[in-house]
Specification:
The protein is an alpha+beta fold and 352 residues long. It is built from eight helices and 13 strands. The strands form four sheets. The chain has a five-stranded antiparallel sheet with strand order 3-4-5-6-11. The longest helix has 31 residues. It is elongated, with a radius of gyration of 37 Å.
Length: 352
């Protein structure tokens, strides 16, 4: 069915927007402007059954978006992160990533496709012209804009086509839940976990290289040794998280070279134990200069003086390295006398 098959009185009214058209060029208007071509009505404009079909198609796309969003949430919750599937011809993929990508893409595409199909088949497609005007709109132009907006809202049939309106609102309201679900990985809050490490009273200092407990006699003057808490093994599930807080630097100084009083009290015969984690951004400190007793972070060159409470003498680090109070047990092994008294590593928002 075309517009030629419909009586003229049954066709939607089309306003004449040829104002300013010039059929023949003259001195004042050197370029001819024949105006807009005659408007061709779409099948949806003249056949309500076709309009209903388009309405159902748009509603289907919005409903598909809602189902895809629900599938995204279900996939995120139920599919294990280590599960893989074979997808021809790509190969083996993470089942979770594949499901999240497909459902999220379908949800976004369906909303966009539904909106485009709605605009192309059901909203008004009449071409209009508007005269240019000054930037500062006069009151009559503002009134015209408001009238055009009301006309556009009326022509969209949003109030009359409730099926489209309700499914569109449902799709737009449900889709943001995908982003809300992703926020789950930002928690839970760390609480006080960043303030404590595995060190406690009586825990032995274990050499990171030999995996054997350290004796005071094992640490020579001028040497640098790295230690971990007794009982922490590399195959432990939480090893990386715990060693990032508990890693130690063990250095032996001459007691008379230690300037800080508390540092001397917390040491054992000149053996001092400091956190290996730089207080700038958490890099592991690994460079030691024997003559100056300085340690250097290789990431951003923060330098700490181990003979003076590990205070910062250069670089962007904000505060000194935390010291662990140590002693020896009855068997001569170095042991912790408690946990760090301040959080290790860089400053964080709940430190104070």
């Amino acid at each position: 069915m075309s517009s030629q098959d419909i009586p003229e009185e049954n066709l939607p009214a089309v306003q004449d927007h040829t104002h300013g058209a010039v059929d023949v060029a003259d001195e004042q208007n050197p370029f001819a402007d024949p105006g807009l071509p005659p408007h061709e009505h779409r099948i949806q404009d003249i056949d309500e059954r076709a309009a209903k079909r388009s309405e159902r198609a748009v509603a289907f796309m919005f409903t598909l978006s809602m189902l895809a969003t629900a599938g995204f949430i279900a996939s995120y919750v139920t599919i294990p992160s280590d599960k893989s599937i074979f997808v021809f011809p790509i190969g083996h993929l993470s089942a979770l990533n594949f499901a999240l990508g497909m459902t999220l893409g379908t949800a976004l595409f369906s909303i966009g496709a539904g909106a485009v199909h709605w605009a192309r088949t059901l909203m008004s497609d009449v071409e209009i012209t508007d005269e240019r005007h000054a930037i500062a709109a006069p009151p009559e132009v503002k009134a015209k804009v408001l009238a055009d907006f009301k006309q556009g809202a009326q022509e969209s049939a949003l109030g009359r086509r409730k099926l489209i309106r309700n499914t569109m609102f449902g799709a737009l309201a449900l889709f943001p839940l995908s982003g809300v679900m992703l926020l789950r990985d930002l928690g839970p809050l760390p609480g006080t976990s960043l303030r404590h490490t595995l060190w406690s009273k009586g825990k032995l200092l274990v050499n990171m290289n030999t995996n054997e407990p350290l004796r005071a006699s094992d640490v020579a003057v001028g040497s640098l040794t790295f230690a971990k808490p007794e009982g922490l093994e590399e195959h432990d599930e939480e090893f990386q998280n715990e060693i990032a807080k508990a890693a130690l630097m063990i250095v032996r100084l001459q007691p008379e070279n230690i300037k800080d009083k508390r540092e001397l009290e917390w040491s054992y015969e000149g053996i001092v134990a400091y956190s290996k984690i730089c207080t700038h951004v958490g890099c592991p400190i690994s460079l030691y200069e024997q003559q100056t007793h300085h340690v250097l972070c290789p990431c951003h060159q923060s330098t700490f003086d181990l003979s003076d409470g590990a205070r910062v003498i250069f670089g962007p680090a904000g505060h000194a390295l935390p010291q662990l109070r140590i002693g020896v047990n009855d068997e001569g092994y170095l042991e912790a006398l408690g946990d760090f008294e301040e959080p290790v590593g860089p400053a964080f928002w709940e430190r104070g």
